[in-house]
Amino acid sequence: MTKDERTASDSARPPAGEAPTGQGPPVLASLNAGSLGVAIGFAVAAAVMFTPFFAPPFLVLLGRSLFLAMVLLLAFVGVQRLPERFLPFGMPRWLATVLAVGIAAPLGTFVVYLLSVGGSVSAFVGNPARMTGFFIIAGTALVLGLVITLTAQLREREARARSQALEFELERSRLEKQAVDARLALLQAQVEPHFLFNTLANVQALVESNSPRAAPVLASLIAYLRAAMPRLHEGEPVLATELALVRAYLELMQMRMPDRLRFEIAVDPALERLRFPPMALLTLVENAVRHGIDPAEDGGRIEVGGVREAGADRLWVADSGVGMAATAEPGTGLANLRARLAGFYGPGAELRLAEQSASPPHGLRAEIVLPR
After folding, report:
1. So what's the pLDDT on residue 71?
2. What's the pTM value of the predicted model, to 2 decimals?
């Protein structure tokens, strides 16, 4: 392309801020079916109302009413589209719109009558009937135009207020979600070292007692951590992943005390795709091993179960160990677990603790209830 061709091409482009050729000016582009329908409806109503009192036939009055309605509509839309810096004397937009419609009503009526007499001002001014008709139509257009303008301004302000309220609500929801996510991340960061250090302490006890099971237990722990650690930060954790970790942990603990620990995992397969916070069930299993089975002279049994009921999903960890002392208070692990469940599922999620039996060994049943 030559230099002259490029210059001609650039000169054919519309200036910045103007609509490209063929798309129409911004004011016309902003007209919609609703505003046009309202203008046409009032024009038809005015023509019907004035027909019994004016000499021109209905179609002539209808044409004049439609012309005047379009003038008022363009005045309204034009000021609405006017950039803020072009408003005279810095007046508010609603006042500028009212003034524009108030001026357009008599001017538009004057143009209509002037066209009807072929542009002769003397023929218009010298005819009392035409002057009377001018004042009647101009006054009616002025009143109706101002009423419609103020009503439209009020509805627009209400719509803007609703839109802002919706935006504020969406922003508040987004910030609340970010806060919950941050809190869950913090709680999970507290749970992970707690679990890891407790497990390492169990391995340390085997090493210090020169147990021949220390080496295989340590090897199992390393294999377990290799499988578990990458899963702790998955974006969408599910119960199936948690159950795999629970099984690996219980197998590890069973290697440490093969004669004192038995376990069973029986969870409804329908729950496997349930969204579930990482290490939540594992916290209950670890507590059952540490506080229920370990202190018991004969060890005990741990049951991990879950069912899907009509109103809620229920998961539990029950042990036949020593149970919980009457004066005992829930530790950091359970407090964090309750907070994580509330953040993950909402305030309806519950963690319930209950003794298995009235006579020693009492055992303990920790149950998570998730309303559906």
Report:
1. 87
2. 0.47
